[in-house]
Amino acid sequence: MPPKMPPTAIFTAPAAGTSMQGTASSAAPSQPPASAAGTTACNPVVIDDDDDVVMGDEQENPQARPTVPSTNLSKKWMTTPAALVVADPSLTELGDGAYKRIVKRYIVQRTRADFFKTSYPRMQPSKDPEINPFYEDQAKQFPVLRESMTVETTDGTRLVAFFKNGMTIGRSDEEYARLKKQSEDAAAELIRLDPNKPKADGRVEAVEEKRRRLALQGLKLIRKHFSYIIPTGYPYGPAVIHSEAKRSSKSAQAEFDACVRYMRDTTWEHEQISRLIKAVDTEDFHQEAAARYQSLQHELEHLYQGPEGIHLGLSFLVNAASNPHRDDGDMPTAWTTTNTWGEYTGGHLVLPELGLRIDQQPGDVTIMHARVLIHMITAIDGNRICNVRYSNENVTRPLPAPLELRLVCPFEGCSVVKKSESSFLTHLRGPSGKENAKARERGSTAYHFVPSKEAHSMLKDALTAYEASK
User: Fold this and answer.
1) Is 234 strand, coil or helix?
2) Are 106 and 86 in contact (CB under 8 A)?
3) Residue 379 and residue 319: Cα distance in Å, rounded?
């Protein structure tokens, strides 16, 4: 299935004349020609000429780049990357005690208000499991960072922090080696038990093709979510443990046990990341998140990862690249973190608005506002295991009392009003399993027997009408 070619605007070069302190103007490469009419080629963003910044593929033939239809250029959520400048070439200090680190500090020529807004256009990753070749090609033009650094706005809001060998901070070589093996062994068990089958979600054909290709190399493509969430389509809760972290049947006991083991054996990762977030957080998110996490200890059950935990979700991703997107469900002020294991090349974290690529290797930690910043993961060669920790925004909102909800059936002549989303869906779809067939045979008038997808659409409309009526 050929990938849909995307717009170019998020990869547009910084505006001409933008100041870039700390860089040698003679080092900036000239603007390469556009690859096709209606497209914009992009210069690598020059930060400085230190060893930790590797320039993009300037020598690549720009004519060989994928062309992009000009009809796709106009999208409201597209932005122009801001030019990055070195505000303090003499470095800055993060954290204290054993977690005190000297890192590079970059300033993006934007203010906090430019990133943290009252609303964000939805920007979810495409359903194609492969990276769009246009995005992959454009990402090569951004400099690669391989050393610890932080990126801030001009008014001091921190957007990203990258800790080289962050998982080793405060630990002896022997302790880190033991814990690293502990995480890798737990991950290997999850990978071994994965059935390697795609979900029936519209991506089956493309996902199957990628799985077959990886299988020839003895690898797998896995996305598992061990999280505490309010499921999509049920904004009024309650929050529950994600189905992939539950035991669904006797045959799934081994997978469930592997999940329990993984959460137990990676607790040290969560603790380490929590300490690093505390070192970079300037807006008290860590304190609020920690209090919320501990208040939910019993609800989290086997997902609970100790007294230093702060994140309510963990996504276990194996060899999963992604096209540009925001994490729409996250809290805007929340810190999303990634750490990886395995042996691989590629898999760079790209931040097109900042014009950067981060080469995150096993033991490194990236901390960022993933709801705010557009990001992507480039193609992977090898076996890349990535833990993404996050907190969904809807879990943090207070839920209305169940009796407040009034969902009116949309069918003409039907006066049914339901007080919960589940009962509303049952009224539209009918009972589940064998009871549905029996109700149809009886000619029951209590249900409308509409398809599930249509019922969820009606639920969404009913919720919107309910909100408007309050």
Assistant:
1) coil
2) yes
3) 9
